[in-house]
Amino acid sequence: MVQEMDLLKRFDAYIDSDQKIEAKDWMPDAYRKTLIRQISQHAHSEIIGMLPEGNWITRAPSLQRKAILLAKVQDEAGHGLYLYSAAETLGVNREELLDALHKGKAKYSSIFNYPTLTWADMGAIGWLVDGAAIMNQVPLCKCSYGPYARAMVRVCKEESFHQRQGFQIMLNLCNGTKEQKEMAQDALNRWWWPSLMMFGPNDESSMHSAQSMKWKIKRFSNDELRQRFVDMSVPQAELLGLTIPDEQLKWNEATGHYDFGPIDWSEFEAVVSGNGPCNRERLATRVKAHENGEWVRAAAAAHAAKVAKRKSLKTDAA
Ligand code: BYC
User: Fold this and answer.
1) How far is the CA of 305 from the centre of ligand 1 (A)?
2) Are 89 and 259 contacting, i.e. CB atoms less than 8 angstroms apart?
3) What percent of the chain has pLDDT over 90?
C-alpha cells in the first residue's frame, strides 16, 4: 500500500512541476479545505453579486442597456454554477454550501454589501469591480487545482466583457452632460475604496496567503494584486476625466508604481463581519430567491429522476 508520505511526495512533486491536481488525485486535507473555502466563497460572491446590479435591470436607460445588463447578471449566475460544481468535485454538497450562506455563516465578497444608488453605479461596478475581479482571477486560471483553473478560464473571458461594458457606461456619462459626469464622479468616489478592499487584507494580516501561494492556488499576494489594480486604473480614470478620491495617490518614480493612501480596515472588518450598509438586505433577498426557486428545483429533480428511470428501463430491455 502506498504510504501517506509517498502520496505527499507525489503531491508536492506535482505542485513543483506545475502539473494540475485533479479531483480523484490524493491531496492533503488542508489543501482540500482551503480550496473548498475559497471556491465556495467565490461561488457565493457570484450569486450575491447578481443582486446590486439586478436592481437596475428594470431601470436601465435604454433597451440595449437593459439587454446588456441582463446578459451580464445571467453570466454571474453561470459563474456561480461553474464554481459550485468545482467545489463539489472536492466532496462537498451544494445544499450544505448554500445553507451556510443563507444562515450567514459563509463569507462572500465585501464589495456586494454596498448600495447601487444611480445608473452610474452600473458603470463603476463594471469598470472597477469587474476590473478588480479580473486582476484577481486571471492568475487563478493557473491555479494548481484543475477544475477551479478550468472554470476560471471561462469566467475571466466573460468578466472582461463585463469590464468593458462598465467602462463604456462611464465613458458615455463622462462625455455627456455636466450632471451625467458628476454622477460618474460620485459613483467613482463611492466604489473606489471598497474595490481596493476586494483584494483582501494587507499581506502582513492575510492569514492564508503564504500557504495558498506555496500550493500555487494563489499566484500573487493580496497587496501585489491591489497595486497592479491601482496602476491599471489611474490612466483609465485620467482618460475618463475623473478624479480618484485619494489625495495621497502619486506616481513614484523609484518604485515605478502609484503610491496610494491607507485603506480603512475598520470599514472592511465591519462589512466582512455582517455590518456593512446592505449585508442584511442582500442575505434576505438571497434567501427569498432561494425559497421562491423551490418549485424549479423540485421540477428539475423530478425530470432528472424520470430520465434516469427511462434509461434504466432501456438498459434492462437490452
Ligand atoms: N470580502 O487570508 P486572506 C466576484 C476573507 S469578485 C470578504 O487574505 P485568502 C464578482 C477571506 O476569505 C469577488 N471576505 O484570505 C465580481 C478570509 O476569511 P476566512 C470574489 C474577504 O483566501 C464581479 C479572511 O478574510 N472573488 O465574484 O488568501 C461581478 C482572510 O483573508 C475579503 C473571489 O472570491 C473580501 N474582500 O484571500 C460578480 C476570488 N478578502 O475564509 C462577481 C477568489 C478577504 O478565513 N478568492 N476575505 O473566514 C480569492 O482570491 C481570495 O479568497 C481572496 C482572499 C483574495 C478574496
Assistant:
1) 37
2) no
3) 96
In this structure, what C-alpha cell is assigned to residue 127? 469598470
pLDDT, tens digit, 9 for 90 and up, residues 125-171: 999 999 999 999 999 999 999 999 999 999 999 999 999 999 999 99
Q: Compute the distance from residue 199 Cα to the ligand 1 centre, in Å.
A: 7
Measure CA of the first residue to CA of the last residue in the chain; give whole Å: 40
Angstrom CA distances, 218 to 165, 208, 269, stand at 27, 10, 22
pLDDT grade, residue 2 (50/70/90)?
low
Residue 56: count of CB within 10 angstroms of its CB: 19
Taking CA atoms only, the protein residue closest to ligand 1 atom 33 is 42
Name the one residue in this structure whose C-alpha cell is 491599471. Answer: 232
Q: Please work out whether the CB of residue 110 comes within 6 Å of at least one atom of ligand 1.
A: yes
Identify the residue whose C-alpha is closest to ligand 1 atom 42.
46
Q: How many other CB atoms are there within 10 angstroms of residue 94's CB atom?
A: 14
Rounded to whole angstroms, how far apart are CA atoms 257 and 251? 6
pTM above 0.70, yes or no: yes
Under a CB-based contact definition with an 8 Å cutoff, are residues 164 and 175 in contact? no
Cell (9 digits) for 318:
437490452
CA of 2 to the centre of ligand 1 (A): 36
Q: Using CA positions, which residue lies closest to atom 39 of ligand 1?
A: 42
